[in-house]
Specification:
14 helices, 83% helix, 2 domains, Receptor-associated Protein
Length: 344
């Protein structure tokens, strides 16, 4: 597999949608990829599709061509392979298009939520430095030139103002470094990987992983794959996520004869209520419908968890910015009050 910069979530969403339309129209993978490659302008996407088309001309599968071309995430490749194996490539591509469209919207929301406060933090840091390096020394010179003696209250205010000056300098540097770190996370592959590792410990990330697991299992079961094989493929699909340990425990329990609904509950993948929904579906012979309903519910749970995470993050940034403004006021107003107290 060739390594290179992966396509963006928006590019993957559009590509999946285009391929799903062509597959639905009965156009083969080789012809579909060739048409898309010819229509695209010169760029990374066109080059990747040309490479995929070259592999398809050899008689290999679409998933093999995508894998050899590089530039496609592992989740995308595994889902396409599942779609080919199950004979539901059209449905898989349509589902992937929706998945990457949501991911693109999520990343856009993250950028909007984080980058704006980060820019504001840099501006406030610049104001901090201007105040502590240019404005506050002026007050000290005024005292020296006037030869004023300070009252205890004024002296205390000036000392507190001096302390806030150094705190402001440290805070300004921290704000700049934090803003640069945020920009690095969004603009580099390593930064995005670091953000993924950071978010992997959150409840929102686990909810997203549960949603992906439920969606994959729903797709594979509805495609006629045996439960054991579907579980094995789901473990491979989510092998690098926070849910991987639970999936391994679930798979081990199933090998010991534990029913699937009970195994997913004991391994902590699903809650008791969710496992009960699965149990009812398996007992009534409607396991595919139950898994599909659970996938829908897990998606709603993931959306709510992500919204909650973004909300908490935004509140934190607002608090930080309020503290920054407070330090600015302390750095300026306290020395001014000290001067006025000395004159009075």
């Amino acid at each position: 597999m060739k390594k290179g910069k992966e396509l963006t979530a928006d590019e993957l969403s559009v590509l999946c949608y285009q391929l799903s339309l062509m597959v639905k129209a009965g156009i083969g993978s080789e012809e579909s990829v060739g048409i898309l490659a010819a229509d695209l302008p010169e760029g990374r996407s066109k080059e990747l599709l040309r490479q995929v088309h070259a592999v398809l001309l050899r008689g290999d599968s679409l998933s093999q061509g995508l894998s050899e071309a590089g530039g496609f995430p592992g989740y995308f490749l595994r889902m396409v392979e599942i779609g080919e194996r199950s004979g539901r490539l059209e449905q898989v591509l349509a589902a992937l298009s929706a998945y990457y469209r949501r991911e693109s919207a999520l990343r856009a929301g993250l950028r909007q939520t984080i980058l704006y406060p980060a820019v504001m933090a840099v501006l406030i840091a610049v104001v901090f430095l201007a105040l502590v390096l240019r404005v506050l020394p002026v007050f000290q010179q005024v005292f020296q030139q006037l030869g004023l003696s300070l009252s205890p209250v004024a002296r205390g205010l000036m000392q507190f103002g001096s302390v806030s000056k150094y705190v402001a300098m440290v805070f300004a540097v921290a704000l700049v470094l934090g803003a640069l770190w945020v920009l690095w996370m969004f603009r580099t592959a390593k930064g995005q990987a670091a953000m993924s590792r950071l978010l992997s410990r959150t409840a929102a990330s686990k909810a997203v992983d549960r949603s992906r697991f439920a969606a994959a299992m729903s797709l594979m079961l509805s495609s006629g794959l045996p439960l054991d094989e579907a579980m094995e493929r789901a473990c491979a699909l989510l092998s690098d996520t926070a849910l991987s340990d639970g999936l391994k425990a679930c798979q081990a329990a199933m090998l010991d004869g534990v029913p699937f609904p009970k195994a997913v509950e004991e391994s902590g993948i699903f809650t008791g209520l969710q496992a009960g929904l699965l149990a009812a579906g398996f007992r009534s012979g409607a396991s595919e419908q139950a898994m599909e309903e659970l996938a829908r519910r897990c998606q709603e749970e993931a959306d709510q968890a992500l919204s909650s995470l973004l909300g908490r993050f935004e509140y934190t940034l607002v608090i930080v910015l309020c503290l920054a403004v407070g330090l600015v006021l302390l750095s300026v107003m306290l020395p001014l009050v000290g001067v006025l107290s000395a004159i009075g």
